[in-house]
Give the backbone structure.
Amino acid sequence: MSGTTAPGEGAAGEPAEVPRAAERSPRRGMCAAVLGLEAIVLGLTTPVLVTLADVPVGTALAVGLGLALVCLLLAGALRAPWAYGAGYVVQAAAIALGVLIPVMFVLGAIFGALWTTADLLGRRIERERAAAWAAYEARGGTGS
């Protein structure tokens, strides 16, 4: 490197291109974090289902670990638009688990609120980022 270019500039002093593919989706990141934490909580409902709710072990494993696995799979599938809708279904299932474990009404509602916030706030950030990038490109890619 010659040191003649400022940070953020290309080889001949031209602005360096921001690679769109390298940008991370804030929506996907926040929603994946919610699903990851929710998977832990849902996985931990398995022993509670067995001991407190008197649910058979096989059913408890299928429900608790099944929902946890769905959360983890959805976290990886958030590149697809359908996964966000499926995330809302998982939130409803977590709340419905309150029928067997009453505290899940509260925890499910909290995770539902976190999911909705992450989804809506992530969309807003992406929309504003796209508008800022379009304005930057409309100015010819210059900072002024």
User: Anything to note?
Assistant: Residues 103-138 form the longest helix (36 residues). Helices lie at 26-51, 57-76, 82-96, 103-138. Residues 1-10 have pLDDT under 50 and may be disordered. The chain has one domain: 26-137.
